[in-house]
Amino acid sequence: MAVRRQPTLRDVAAAAGVAVSTASRALTKPGRVNADTADRVVAVAKELGYIPSASARALLSGRTATVALVLPDVTNPFFFGLVRGTGARLRESGYVQVLADTEESAEVELDTLRKLRGQVDGAVLAASRLSDEQIAGAAQDLALVVVNRTIPGTPGVLLDTAGGMVQALEHLVGLGHTRIAYAAGPATSWSDRRRREALEPAAARLGVDLVVLGPYAPVRASGAQAADAAVESGVTAVIAFNDLLAFGVLERLDVRGVPVPGRMSVIGCDDIFGADLVRPALTTVESPVERAGRMAADLLLARLEGGRSDDEDAGGLDDEPVVPVRDAADPVMLPTHLIVRSSTGAAG
């Protein structure tokens, strides 16, 4: 069975008895065409079932109704909530979301942003591996909102994972641990630097030794190396950059016959799917990732459409508290909290 050909603008123009340029103006800028002619063209377009292509709309309006979500690793479950949050909010406003995976590469990320110019109306840039200068430069050519990053002049949403890491440290100290490791994330991670900057003074305040291990790729496979380093360093607890790394640490400690939490306590970050299913169940820092996605989309829509975000009007979704920030130029910061499970216990 043959597929029915979709009517084109030329078909509409021929049926309405006008030039193609006139039909185009009637459908996109009716005020520039005689009212009777515009009504006739619109009626014909509806009768034929004409739908203007995305590229045609973009050419005529300068808008694509498409937004990119740029991620460092699309396979990382942490980002699933972000995808849902941004996608749902954008869909509500008539936008389509496309995903771009930069594979933890700053070079790929920068090239992706360059190629997105003119292809999308804007982008949400999550956990960027680029420098501040590179992001600021990209923001001059493409409407951007950043997640887990602060760039002057660029709207953003922060998850207070640094504060969550301090909660994790305080939890371990309360259990009697005095020598604790932080298994760091990628060297290019802005969020990782921020966490270390929060952990080091907190450790000094609490009077405990903090041993920084790594950096490590934020994947499960890196956990073996982190676990070996933790055992060799003589710590009794490990705070991992993310849950995937913590999963790998748990696996390696099990292989080595190191009881968790008997001889080593382990804490992750993100509370991804499976954190409560591993054995022992993982103590971890939970972040409102889906909410962050919706807020990031709101901020981008405000830039594209000149409106205010829902959270600015309502004071935050679901009546959850928002961590105060210094002034309106700062990014919105969302609180995190520690979920205690069975992977942490008293120091042996």
Automatic annotation (TrEMBL):
<dbReference type="InterPro" id="IPR000843">
    <property type="entry name" value="HTH_LacI"/>
</dbReference>
<protein>
    <submittedName>
        <fullName>LacI family transcriptional regulator</fullName>
    </submittedName>
</protein>
<dbReference type="InterPro" id="IPR010982">
    <property type="entry name" value="Lambda_DNA-bd_dom_sf"/>
</dbReference>
<keyword id="KW-0238">DNA-binding</keyword>
<keyword id="KW-0805">Transcription regulation</keyword>
<dbReference type="InterPro" id="IPR028082">
    <property type="entry name" value="Peripla_BP_I"/>
</dbReference>
<dbReference type="Pfam" id="PF13377">
    <property type="entry name" value="Peripla_BP_3"/>
</dbReference>
<feature type="domain" description="HTH lacI-type">
    <location>
        <begin position="7"/>
        <end position="61"/>
    </location>
</feature>
<dbReference type="Pfam" id="PF00356">
    <property type="entry name" value="LacI"/>
</dbReference>
<dbReference type="InterPro" id="IPR046335">
    <property type="entry name" value="LacI/GalR-like_sensor"/>
</dbReference>
<keyword id="KW-0804">Transcription</keyword>
